Amino acid sequence: MGISIATVQGVAKTTNGETQDFTVSSFGTVKAYLVFSTKAITNNTAADEYSYSIGAGDGTREWVVTGRCEHNQGTTDKARRGTSTESVMWLNAGNQNVEGEANATLITDGIRLTFSNAPAAAYQITVVLFGGSDLSVRADDDSHTGVQDAEVAYTAPGFEPDVVFFGYNGIALNDSSNTGDDNMQLGVAANESGGIVQVMSGCKGTDNVGTSQEHSHHRTDLVSASLEDSNGDINRGLEVTAFTGGGTPDFKLTKRTGASDMFFGYLALSFGGAVKFDLEHLNTPTSGDLTSTALGGTPQFLMVMGGYNDSIDDVNNTNAAGAGTISISVIDANAEFCMGGNKEDAVMTTNTQSLVDAVAINLHDGAGTEVMKATGPSGLGSFGASGYTLDFTNNDATIRKWAVLSIEETAAAAPSGELHNPIFRVKNRGYGHLREAR
After folding, report:
1. Rounded to whole angstroms, how far apart are CA atoms 11 and 415?
2. What does the angle CA 325 – CA 129 – CA 393 come to, to the nearest 5 degrees?
3. What stretches of 161-275 adopt beta strand conformation (E)?
4. Per-residue confidence at 321, pLDDT binned at 50, 70, 90?
5. Cα(74)–Cα(436) distance, integer angstroms
6. CA 225, CA 199: separation in Å to the nearest integer?
7. Are 41 and 120 in contact (CB under 8 A)?
8. Domain residue ranges of the chain, discontinuous segments joined by +
């Protein structure tokens, strides 16, 4: 019963047709998953090429978006791709062709990736598993082709979501011809009792220029956006403007700023009232640890959307060593993984890296220097009765703007014959708490 979430790490196979299982013992039936990968091969060892892949699926549908930027080039060399038939993808250095990709099937306790087109190296892959009898899921890809400020309803899930993850890189998922730029983003929207809370965390770089133009964003008003080449300003974006229950449940997206079409993948989850959840915007500590009690319960899962942004809803290209960054961490009570990518801004020779590590936080700058590190429950951090603590062993002197999604562990069933008090949902909208950036 309830909701189950777990994280697991493994490596890609390097022979076409091989499979790799990503399982967590006794997890049981998997209903949906997220997949993250870079071109890092060894934990805590940066690879000299920026590459980032975000994928999701539910056993029936799957999607992936990916982007890359070649290292040590006099002219920026970038590419991006996506597809609705795979869950993880890497691109060749030097062109937009697929180096490797794999689709996923659900198996007991996890998922199985089948590498019809195996990559050149055994890149690290991180998977988040979602299950439980109270969980409803829908993975899909879609588009918003309306004009600016048009609101579009997405009814495919068939339920009112509590949390929706969005993957976006600026092009149609099955477009194999668009090579420009590397606009990689993860968006999350939470259907909280106090209102909709959302975040878009990602970065974008310009292709085929002699001096690198790298920008990153941490936005609290959008879940995806296309950024301008020259200054990183929003060209067009998508805002979640409604979650609707009743006869035709859906979520609604409204296009902001521009009118061009936008294509995205999403994973919608409903927890059926079984657990609390919270999406919080917060500041990183310049000393000491990071503690939050916003959830008001014991977490079973955290997703940290970090990076180097020192302001919200504004472009960050003032810190050259960390201007083009994306960092996503997934943490449960037994395992934690951080997946990062960095592209240095305003340099004439590209300086790009991929990094993965089995800790809660491990951020490197464009030169490959560690600037922030922390552990969660598998280290000296903890999940407590009201929230979590991330134990920092290396703090950045500059306050960075992050977002953290917390999902509560499922409460133990009451003993036979014991009466416990139910907690009612507000307007069918989950237990989440609205937290403003601070």
Report:
1. 42
2. 45
3. 163-168, 184-192, 195-205, 214-219, 224-227, 234-244, 250-256, 262-270
4. low
5. 42
6. 11
7. no
8. 4-408
DSSP sequence for 31-45: EEEEEEE-S--STT-
Distance in angstroms (rounded) separating the CA atoms of residues 419 and 174: 53
Integer Cα distance of 165 and 147 in angstroms: 23
Q: Reduced to 3 states, what is the DSSP secondary structure of residue 198?
A: strand
The token pair at 387 is 């929230």
Does residue 424 surpass a pLDDT of 60? no
DSSP string across 399-421 = --EEEEEEEEPPPPPPPTT----
Beta bridge partners of 205: 214
pLDDT of residue 15: 98
pLDDT in tens, 58-98: 999 999 999 998 888 888 888 889 999 999 999 998 777 89
Instruction: Tell me which DSSP letter residue 435 carries.
Output: B
Distance, CA of 320 to CA of 326 (rounded, Å): 14
Asked if 403 and 201 count as a contact pair (C-beta separation under 8 A), the reply is yes
Which pairing describes strands 78-83 and 62-69: parallel, antiparallel, or unpaired? antiparallel
Residue 315 · residue 401 · CB < 8 Å: no
Q: Phi/psi zone of residue 383: left (φ > 0), alpha (ψ -120 to 50 degrees), beta?
A: beta
User: 10 Å Cβ neighbour count for 147?
Assistant: 10
Structure tokens given for 163: 């949390």
Number of neighbours of residue 346 by Cβ within 10 angstroms: 12
Q: How far apart are CA 184 and CA 203, in angstroms?
A: 6
Q: Cα–Cα distances in Å, from 122 out to 10, 22, 106, 113?
A: 9, 14, 22, 13
Q: Which residues pair with 35 in a beta bridge?
A: 55, 127
What's the pLDDT tens digit per position in 117-144? Answer: 999 999 999 999 999 999 999 999 999 9
The position carrying tokens 């209102």 is 195
pLDDT above 80 (res 322): no
pLDDT of residue 383: 97
The answer, as to whether pTM is greater than 0.90, is: yes
